[in-house]
């Protein structure tokens, strides 16, 4: 948002400022993207454990542990910071807020 304001205020196009703004967006995007992927993969883990062929293992200990593993794997893994959960919704909300600030500063 501040890059757009910088350009629209008549300061001109500065490549360093543009690069810094782009890197800032990427810096916010990557943790959100990978946290979303981690959550998605963690929800698939229960199915992967169940389909792993555990019933063919001779050990009774494995047969006793698998239901607990499946039950625990059904709870998705989330990365949280205080009250914020990293995911793509957080990234979109940050971009929307940034654009709202830009329109507020511009008017």
TrEMBL record:
Q: What is this protein called?
A: Odorant receptor
Could you tell me which Pfam families the record lists for this protein?
7tm_6
- Organism, scientific name: Leucinodes orbonalis
Keyword check for Membrane: yes
* Gene Ontology BP terms: signal transduction
Q: Which GO terms describe its cellular component?
A: membrane
Give the main location: membrane
**What is its subcellular localisation?**
Membrane
Annotated GO molecular function terms are: odorant binding; olfactory receptor activity
Entry keywords, A to Z? Membrane, Olfaction, Receptor, Sensory transduction, Transducer, Transmembrane, Transmembrane helix
Q: Which residues span the membrane?
A: 15-32
> Lineage, please?
Eukaryota, Metazoa, Ecdysozoa, Arthropoda, Hexapoda
Q: How does it sit in the membrane?
A: Multi-pass membrane protein
């Amino acid at each position: 948002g501040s890059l757009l304001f910088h350009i629209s205020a008549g300061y001109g196009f500065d490549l360093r400022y543009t690069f810094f703004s782009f890197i800032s967006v990427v810096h916010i995007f990557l943790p959100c993207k990978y946290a979303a992927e981690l959550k998605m993969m963690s929800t698939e883990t229960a199915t992967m454990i169940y389909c792993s062929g555990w019933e063919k293992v001779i050990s009774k200990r494995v047969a006793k542990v698998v239901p607990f593993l499946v039950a625990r794997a059904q709870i998705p893994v989330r990365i949280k910071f205080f009250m914020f959960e990293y995911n793509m919704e957080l990234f979109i909300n940050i971009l929307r807020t940034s654009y709202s600030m830009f329109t507020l500063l511009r008017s």
